[in-house]
């Protein structure tokens, strides 16, 4: 049951974020997608290897994400 609630919250937040602005250009959609991927990878890299690599990837992913939103 907890997994269903978490799935519902994640899917709802993702749908809200992606469908928030319907007139996004292709570049903004690209930046939003790769910004999200970059932020998720930043956490994984920071945990698996060194913190500085994860921080650098997080900054790049965050910048892409902000441009896409």
Descriptive key words:
single chain, 69 residues, mainly alpha, 3 helices, flat
What does this structure look like?
By secondary structure, the protein is mostly helical. It has a domain at 23-69. Helix content is 84%, strand content 0%. It contains three helices and no strands. It has helices at 2-18, 26-48, 51-68. The longest helix is centred in the middle third of the chain and has 23 residues, at 26-48. The N and C termini lie far apart (32 Å).
What's the arrangement of secondary structure elements?
Layout: H1 2-18, H2 26-48, H3 51-68
Helix pairs in contact: 2-3
What order do the helices and strands follow? HHH
The amount of beta strand, in percent, is under 5%
Helix content: over 70%
| Biggest sheet descriptor | none
Distance between the termini: 32 Å
Low-confidence stretches: none
The oligomeric state is single chain
């Amino acid at each position: 049951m907890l997994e269903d609630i978490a799935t519902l919250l994640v899917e709802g937040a993702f749908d809200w974020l992606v469908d928030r602005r319907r007139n996004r250009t292709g570049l903004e959609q690209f930046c939003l997608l790769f910004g999200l991927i970059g932020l998720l990878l930043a956490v994984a890299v920071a945990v698996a290897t060194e913190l500085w690599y994860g921080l650098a990837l997080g900054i790049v992913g965050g910048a892409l994400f902000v441009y896409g939103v």
